[in-house]
Structure formats: structure tokens, C-alpha cells
């Protein structure tokens, strides 16, 4: 008469309840991994490869929005010399380069889509 129904559960029901509590957490982690973490890692890997392949003559876009032409790339050094205007060269860090722009061809210069 004084026995609570909470103590009268069998051991199999307790294991199933634990699985049903953990399953939503695992599902949320899987969704975060495939929608947020994995694409970000892929993007970082591509950006690192882009910076490693940087060479003289490339047109680059910096994180500050400046477009320039790479003049000097030193191996083992984190700095790149970029010409942002005629006879104006600045030294920037590789990590601040956001993108390498495609060269503008002679035929593409006048065409506006």
C-alpha cells in the first residue's frame, strides 16, 4: 500500500527510456555537424589551398575590400606585397586575402552581361 508506482518499473523499460532521451540529442548533433561544421571545415581547407597557391601577378581581394595585384610572394613569410594603385605597394598578411579574382580578358572588359 505504501509502495510508489515509480519503484515498480522493470529494468528493460529504464534502458529504453534512456535511449529515447539521448536520441534527440544525437540527432541535433548530427544535423549541426552536416549543416554547419562540415561545410565550414571544407571552406577553410579551400581557402588555405588558395593562399598556398598564391603567385605573382594574381589579382586579389583583401578582407578590407581592396583589390590589388600581387607583386612579391615570399616563401616561409606570412606577408605578401600587393600593388593597389600605380606605384603604391603595401605589405599585407596572407590571411587577409579573401579571394583571388579571375583575370579580366580583353573581350570581357566591354561586355556587361
What does this structure look like?
With 113 residues, the protein is α+β, with helices and mostly antiparallel strands. The chain folds into two domains: 5-50; 54-101, SH3 type barrels, CATH 2.30.30. It is 37% helix and 26% strand. It is built from one helix and five strands. It has one helix at residues 11-52; strands at 59-62, 67-73, 79-85, 88-93, 97-101. Strands 4-3-2-1-5 form a five-stranded antiparallel β-sheet, with helices on one face. A hairpin with a 2-residue loop joins strand 3 and strand 4. It is rod-shaped, with a radius of gyration of 28 Å. One of its GO terms (cellular component) is plasma membrane. Keywords: Cell membrane, Membrane, Protein transport, Translocation, Transmembrane, Transmembrane helix, Transport. It is a single-pass membrane protein.
List keywords for this structure.
5 strands; SH3 type barrels; 113 residues; 37% helix; rod-shaped; alpha+beta; 1 helix
How do the helices and strands line up, and which of them pair or pack?
Elements: H1 11-52, E1 59-62, E2 67-73, E3 79-85, E4 88-93, E5 97-101
Amino acid at each position: 500500500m505504501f509502495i510508489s508506482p515509480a519503484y515498480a518499473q522493470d529494468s528493460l523499460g529504464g534502458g529504453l527510456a534512456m535511449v529515447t532521451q539521448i536520441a534527440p540529442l544525437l540527432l541535433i548533433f548530427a544535423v549541426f555537424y552536416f549543416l554547419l561544421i562540415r561545410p565550414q571545415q571544407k571552406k577553410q581547407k579551400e581557402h588555405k589551398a588558395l593562399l598556398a597557391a598564391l603567385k605573382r601577378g594574381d589579382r586579389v581581394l583583401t578582407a578590407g575590400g581592396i583589390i590589388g595585384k600581387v607583386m612579391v610572394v615570399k616563401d616561409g613569410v606570412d606577408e605578401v606585397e600587393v600593388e593597389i594603385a600605380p606605384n603604391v605597394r603595401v605589405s599585407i598578411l596572407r590571411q587577409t586575402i579573401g579571394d583571388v579574382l579571375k583575370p579580366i580578358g580583353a573581350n570581357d572588359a566591354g561586355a556587361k552581361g
